[in-house]
Design a protein that fits this description.
single chain; alpha+beta; 5 strands
């Protein structure tokens, strides 16, 4: 319980053995795992902040709650190698995408 452990490091240490509970909670609050199916060995996680219960966040996390509430950003976490692979992934993200016949850029 985050209220009983004020220090963020101690809190993480205290709950690290509850991995299954944490994953279950996360999946019910906007966390989506996207395993690599391309063979590039790049797994991703997407966090839909509109589904977060902002009151559940540890007080030591420095998150601008007003920004999250106003814009509901989506967080993309990518597990990738460095160098050329990283360049290619970022380059792909920066390319405009076509949605409903209209070209759009991601707000990165």
């Amino acid at each position: 319980d985050r209220q009983s452990t004020n220090d963020l490091h101690a809190f993480i240490h205290e709950i690290k053995s509850r991995g299954d509970d944490i994953v279950e909670y996360a999946k019910n609050h906007g966390f989506h795992e996207v395993p690599d199916e391309s063979g590039a060995h790049v797994d991703c996680q997407i966090i839909d902040t509109s589904m977060l219960n902002l009151e559940d966040l540890h007080p030591d996390l420095k998150i601008h709650l007003d920004v999250v509430k106003d814009s509901n950003p989506v967080i993309l976490v990518m597990d990738y190698a460095f160098g050329t692979q990283a360049f290619e992934l970022i380059d792909s993200l920066l390319q405009p995408m076509v949605m409903e016949g209209e070209e759009k850029n991601l707000n990165l």
